[in-house]
Amino acid sequence: MKQSLELNKEIFREMVKFYGETLNIPPLAAKIYAYLIFDFEKKGICFDEFVHVFAASKSSVSASINLLLNAKLINDFNTIKERKRFFRINENYINMRFEEIISKMKKEILILDQLNEFRKSKDQEEFQKFEIYRSLLIKNIKNIEETLHKI
């Protein structure tokens, strides 16, 4: 079986490291995810190709694919002509990821507000630092929300 995707090995290595750390996924799952990003035409990659390209056991590939599917990082589909399952990047993942970031920032604002109210500090310098940070969170939330509406 021949590899169906053309890769830039340096970019691929950087992506594997980045997505492994950012998404907190094991190395093989990060390799599969990065490999799928190179599927620019979104044709999908079959299970056997992953086994061949990464010289990994079927059980390791299966476990990594299931992890990516459960995290909704990838989707699977079948074609009419074949019984094989194919996999590709979940196009909605960008929205899901940023909505999660927004949710965490909003929760942080609520916690910071509660902490600030509890502290009842009269220190103006501390209050200004708090307000600068809170304002930054609010601006970032607004910026991400506006960007998501454009996608």
Descriptive report:
- This protein has 151 residues and is mainly alpha-helical.
- 66% of the residues lie in helices and 8% in strands.
- The chain contains six helices and three strands; from the N terminus they run ααβααββαα.
- It has helices at 9-22, 27-37, 47-54, 58-70, 93-119, 124-150, and strands spanning 45-46, 74-78, 85-89.
- A hairpin with a 6-residue loop joins β2 (74-78) and β3.
- α1 (9-22) packs across α2 (27-37) and α5 (93-119) runs antiparallel to α6 (124-150).
- The protein is elongated, with a radius of gyration of 21 Å.
Could you provide a short overview of the structure?
The chain is mostly helical and 151 residues long. 66% of the residues lie in helices and 8% in strands.
How far the N terminus sits from the C terminus, by CA atoms, comes to 37 Å
The number of helical elements comes to 6
Number of extended strands: 3
Fraction of residues in H or I helices: 55-70%
- What is the averaged pLDDT score? 92
Which properties best describe this structure?
151 residues, mainly alpha, 6 helices, elongated
Could you give the topology of this structure?
Blueprint: H1 9-22, H2 27-37, E1 45-46, H3 47-54, H4 58-70, E2 74-78, E3 85-89, H5 93-119, H6 124-150
Antiparallel strand pairs: 1-3, 2-3
Helix pairs in contact: 1-2, 2-4, 5-6
